[in-house]
Design a protein that fits this description.
Structural class: alpha/beta
Oligomer: single chain
Shape: globular
Distance between the termini: 8 Å
Strand content: 15-25%
Helix content: 40-55%
Strand order of the largest sheet: 2-1-3-4-5
Number of helices: 5
């Protein structure tokens, strides 16, 4: 059974890669999900401050203005369920963030990563 509680809230997609950001946004909107997006950590914080109804953040691990998971840490500190998006395979980083409450860790470079991400969001 698919969880539809998220339909009342927004999902924030934070990625500096416009192809990833726009593709995720499109895939999620096709599923009827309201999506907010940001291309930097600074922009993501601004979007969050203006939209307190964010139910999930999909956050790139490395952003130009937030290296080494700073953006992920920020959203976890706000108690927002967070999916980490990354092109870096690092088991230690995954374990660290899962212990901090990360929903999941998605490798952007695997085939079908967008579909996998959408399915995780729908859970």
């Amino acid at each position: 059974m698919v969880n539809t509680d998220f339909l009342e809230k927004s999902i924030l997609v934070v990625d500096d890669d416009p192809v990833i950001r726009k593709s995720l946004t499109k895939f999620l909107e096709i599923e009827g999900i309201k999506v907010l997006s940001a291309d930097s950590f600074k922009h993501a914080v601004e979007v969050y401050r203006n939209n307190k109804n964010i139910s999930l953040a999909l956050v790139d691990y490395v952003l130009p203005d937030a290296k080494d998971g700073t953006a992920v840490e920020y959203f976890l500190s706000k108690n927002i369920p967070t999916l980490l998006l990354t092109g870096t395979v690092d088991k230690k980083i995954r374990e660290l963030y899962v212990q901090k409450g990360l929903v999941d860790y998605i490798f952007k470079s695997i085939p079908d990563a967008l579909n996998i991400t959408v399915e995780l969001v729908k859970r």
